[in-house]
Prior knowledge:
The protein is an alpha+beta fold. The protein is built from one helix and eight strands. It has one helix spanning 3-29; strands at residues 36-41, 47-49, 53-60, 65-72, 75-81, 87-94, 100-110, 119-126. The protein is elongated, with a radius of gyration of 16 Å.
Amino acid sequence: MDGRTMARRASASSLAAALVAWSLAAALVAGATKPVAWIDQPLPGSVLPLGPTSVTIHAASDVGIAKVRLLGDGIPVGELPAPPGDLVTLDWTWVPPAPGIHLLTVVADGTDGSPSDPVSVAVTFLEGDGPAPTAPPS
Length: 138
């Protein structure tokens, strides 16, 4: 895959992520009481070198977010307390146990105890240098 194709895919993925975030925020404004969560980074299908990876998470609820639960390959790996607010951003560093495709999942819990639906992204981790990361430029 050449650089232009990768750049177009990254741009399309960034646009798709922005549209999802906008849609979820619109649902919040419309009075949705169930929390929603999404993973901004890494993007679904990203290919990254094996090692610690930064995961950026957003969660929203009109009752506020209490915490976000984190799962790696379906196994609970921890939870992050949420800062006050109806829309929160959290960062998590996850270390994959081995090369391969791994599933990162988040579930946000509202201050009233109601959980969001689980949201997952599949990411491929390659041993060694591997290809350049596929995350879009900031």
